[in-house]
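Incident log, structure service

09:12 report received: a user says their structure output differs between two submissions of the same chain.
09:20 pulled the input from the user's history:
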Amino acid sequence: MATCRPPARPVDETGVVSGINRVDRAIGVALLLVLVALVGLGVADSRSAARAGSGPLTGPGTLPSSPTATTAPVAPSTTPGALPTTTSTAPLAPVVAPVVAPVTGPVTAVGDSVLLDAQPELATDVPGIAVDGLVSRQFDAGIGVVQADRAAGTLGKVLVVELGTNGPISPGEVDAMVQAASGVSRVVFVNVCVPRPWAAPDNAVLADGVARHPGVAVLADWNTLATAHPEWFTFDQVHLNPAGAVALATLIASLA
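09:34 re-ran on a clean worker, output below:
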């Protein structure tokens, strides 16, 4: 009896089964193209890595490099109780005084209560100084004191006049003081630093008076020196505490 067998597939002349249809061929071509593309990408990546390792890139499209470290100022600590890392101490203001030649001989100082504030320091800075200070003394009263000292022969070779704290000064009074001190080598006029309406006019009168008597009169500019240091004064901003007394005595000693 005959056996039923499926018909054999035709074989082409190359030995390949001719039954492979076009779909199979298309899938094979696609797989081959994908494989080629993957190989190409791998080569491209290796070349890019080689270029990146050879040095920094420049020009547009360059990848940003690692951020450069910068040093920022350190903010002061705000932790309660923390000690400051630095301290600042303002230096003492220099004494404002003209350069004068030294004078050999005793020194007489006539003034008001501000002069009395600095009397102990003056005794140290100017040995042998004779201080005649009086509370609320006016400038014209000081002229009489100098006249009396000259008449008694007790007026020093240098006269220090610290007056004007308690009231106005006139140009004529400055001239009269210089006249009363006739024969001395130098008259040192100390200007004023007080919160009073006559302070600025008095200082202008003293500056003008010194300019009228060159070679004899000099100005001790206490106002300029002390204005920058309100801490040198007591509560009334007129009289001096120990620091202010030292500063005034130092100024006077530099000219006496």
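09:41 both user submissions now match this output. Likely a transient worker issue. Closing.
09:42 reviewer note: Strands lie at 107-111, 130-133, 158-162, 186-190, 217-220. Residues 1-20, 43-96 have pLDDT under 50 and may be disordered.
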